[in-house]
Design a protein that fits this description.
2 copies of one chain form a homodimer.
Chain A: H1 4-12, E1 16-17, H2 26-31, H3 46-59, E2 63-67, H4 70-85, E3 89-92, H5 97-101, H6 105-110, E4 113-116, H7 126-130, E5 138-142, H8 155-167, E6 171-176, H9 179-186, H10 190-194, E7 199-203, E8 214-218, H11 220-232, H12 241-254, H13 258-272, E9 278-281, E10 289-295, H14 298-312, E11 314-315, E12 321-322, E13 328-334, H15 337-340, H16 344-353
Parallel strand pairs in A: 1-11, 3-4, 3-5, 5-6, 6-7
Antiparallel strand pairs in A: 2-8, 7-8, 9-10, 10-13, 12-13
């Protein structure tokens, strides 16, 4: 990884960005919040209520609640599911956000236990679930599976897994951090995917590119109880309106573009596939994101990132994540407005430079 | 209390506001965030780091961390104090925020126990603490005591209470939601008050009038551990910069005005004291806030609030809080820019209308 300050300085001199919607800029995010936005009071009313109603409708659920972050959202709804069942175990993929990036919040704050099922390098399979003996509180499924480059199971496999959870008396919860992307991949509206689940978490700052914020949608009583946990966890801010207004505006703008982003992901995969030393995961991309495995040492990739920024004004990645093979690095490409401002061939040409000695 | 929608509609037609800085408006809050604000990434860098450094210096502490809300901030730092002492009990005033407005977050999320000491209608006294047998994890002192109209103990009494906590091996934590106001009241800089305590929480959306947000300041190692809890509690948002930028700008603007706000509080008390049927609490005001006890039934006060808004374009309160006497209502007046835009006599005249039949 490049040093953060160096990376920011390099990036700020670039004019093209292969990833997402380009860098976070205060000016453009602030411009997306109308000065006459109707404010909420501690999460009640105004644009927060408007967003919650719109998201509930979009997901086909009776209710939705806005929260500051996904970490807060998912622990809150999992706590509700667990308390109602007097069970403690949440089943999830070993590489999901809760397992990797939440510092044992479930365990340390709620006395819940995250139990990884299946294997890190592949999706959860029904057989993994059937191997679980204890009655779980909930099964959490992440769609698409970010750590696998946005792979997701066939829809009927998903239905079977959720069916298994129901048969065990467990709640089925969807980690839909990228449900907008998943929806494009399944070619089904978000509500059709959400319909399988008891509760759904969706995010607004990733593919949608808004300020930090998210929703949990589900039955009225579950969502009402999540609101109580939002208060306890410190998420019922005096005003949630800046993030909610940002989310509402950009959701309307970018959700319809997801199929276009997916098309671009596949075009980039097509263009980069012939390049020696690059592998696309999954191939073809299933959602508007993909991982690239680059046959090059980490230092070489970093040096090429630097050179691309300095010489060509193209910003790619902050650095490469490792893999079990020191000669292979992994980077994640999320498709957004910035990616689509370049042609797929241009993006592929830039990516090819990451595996090419000068 | 007036119905929220009715109150908003009435307020929005008013041109004068006796309370604080007037109503929350998206436009003015957004205008306080520079479009070239340096953004943070998950709380690191940019304006968030700038605010943390400025607040640490202002409070004379080695470190500070920005968090989305006071509920999150105080439970995080109390958890740190408790874990380090392997103790569970937090001593606090029976009417403090944790006891009244946090839905047992300490108990339900952290297995901590809030133990009220002293009595609701007066400040904590040293004798209340000396009556506690168990070794507590922390003593939380709220300055000023909001529920008592902003009363605070003499500084030497405060020193004695903190000394007692230290002698019992407990942490001394300052709930400084209104430390800026407390500082004006004690005529001491915030750092001189903060110096007594192991950790200090300060807020930016109350007297300062910024977007929701706060800081915890203390020793480096304590603040570092609070950062871990911020992550677990879901407060390490992808971007915390909007709230931090708002806080930094308005802190610089309004902190120097606190003595002026206090002067206005005392002038209002002087002007309202002769009015029959109104009592000022505390009298004289000790900080830039005060409570008013109004001799009138709740419905009469509400009707007069309505009439003042409709006929005079003056917005006062959403309604009156009850007291043990049904014939007496209580309202809270926080002094801010809007209060200071009226003369003390004008404010007193408006308040007098609340106890006067037409």
């Amino acid at each position: 990884m490049l040093d953060a300050a160096e990376a920011d300085a390099l990036r700020d001199r670039c004019t093209r960005f292969v990833n997402g919607h380009g860098p976070v800029r205060a000016a453009s995010l602030l411009a997306g919040i109308a000065p006459d936005t109707a404010v909420d009071t501690y999460g009640d009313g105004g644009v927060v209520a408007e967003l919650e109603a719109e998201v509930a409708a979009l997901l086909g659920k009776p209710a939705a609640v806005f929260l500051p972050s996904g970490i807060m959202a998912q622990q809150a709804v999992l706590r509700v599911h667990a308390d109602r069942r007097a069970r403690r175990t949440v089943l999830y993929h070993p590489m999901c956000h809760l397992a990797r990036h939440e510092e044992q919040a479930l365990e340390r704050l709620h006395g819940l236990i995250g139990r990884p099922v299946g294997e890190a390098h592949r999706l959860i399979a029904l057989a993994d679930l059937e191997a679980v003996a204890e009655p779980p509180a909930a099964l959490l499924i992440e769609l698409p599976q970010r750590d696998l480059g946005g792979e997701q199971p066939p829809f009927d496999a998903l239905e079977a897994q959720v069916g298994w959870a129901r048969s065990r008396g467990a709640a089925a919860h969807l980690d839909g951090a990228r449900l907008w992307e998943s929806s494009a991949g399944y070619e089904r509206p978000p509500a059709e995917i959400a319909a399988l689940f008891d509760s759904v978490y969706v995010s607004f700052y990733k593919g949608i590119g808004a300020l930090a914020g998210c929703c949990v949608a589900g039955e009225e009583d579950v969502v009402a109880e999540v609101r109580e946990w939002r208060r306890r966890l410190g998420g019922t801010l005096y005003g949630l309106w800046p993030a909610a207004a940002s989310a509402l505006g950009l959701l309307r703008e970018r959700l319809p573009r997801m199929p276009r982003y997916l098309e671009q992901a596949r075009a980039i995969a097509d263009a980069v596939r012939p390049v020696p030393g690059i592998r696309v995961v999954p191939d073809p991309p299933q959602t508007p994101m993909l991982h690239l495995l680059l046959e090059a040492p980490a230092e070489a990739v970093e040096e090429r990132i630097r050179r691309l920024a300095e010489e060509d004004g193209v910003w790619t990645f902050r650095g490469a994540g490792g893999t079990p093979d020191p000669a292979v690095q992994r980077v994640e490409l999320a498709i957004g407005d910035a990616t689509c401002a370049m042609t797929a061939d241009e993006v592929a040409g830039v990516l090819a430079r990451l595996v090419t000695p000068r």
